[in-house]
């Protein structure tokens, strides 16, 4: 779901950078720096997962893991995802530096939203925890697809078709990420339950 350089309009790029700047600042301010290792590990997981692309028509799909990142890191999802996308842009030319703000916003904003919406379920245990984790994984990808599609649609009518394909192509990914997030949260609840209750300073 990386948007390439030279595609988006100026106002969309500016809006993406503004949201990313605010989100990253808030994430760093509220981050418990004792959890930096967790942030680094999840940022690396995001980096690796989104390198494996499966082409579907004019777009390609890949695992995103933003729902899992949001479930564990909360607001710190912004700096974690921003660093991973920056490295991808510099090392592999995925996306680009100019569109880094929009790409980060598209991935991190849904992660934080799902953390706020489903966080109480994630820490409830049992069936509620499983439902909350699945919803985190599913809706984070859905919202990321919607934001990416909106960014393309707002940049010109020529991209409306691509925007629709992006949403349709990521439906299987939504389901897969929902299941993966539920499995990961269930595992962490057994071996590292404190990771599901990260305290964000501030």
From TrEMBL:
Its main location: membrane. One of its GO terms (cellular component) is plasma membrane. InterPro entries: CbiM/NikMN. It is a multi-pass membrane protein. The chain crosses the membrane at residues 36-56, 68-91, 97-118, 130-154, 166-189. Pfam families: CbiM. Signal peptide: none annotated. One of its GO terms (biological process) is transition metal ion transport. It is found in: Cell membrane. Keywords: Cell membrane, Membrane, Transmembrane, Transmembrane helix, Transport. NCBIfam families: PRK06265.1-4, PRK06265.1-5, PRK06265.2-5. This is Cobalamin (Vitamin B12) biosynthesis CbiM protein. It comes from Solidesulfovibrio fructosivorans JJ].
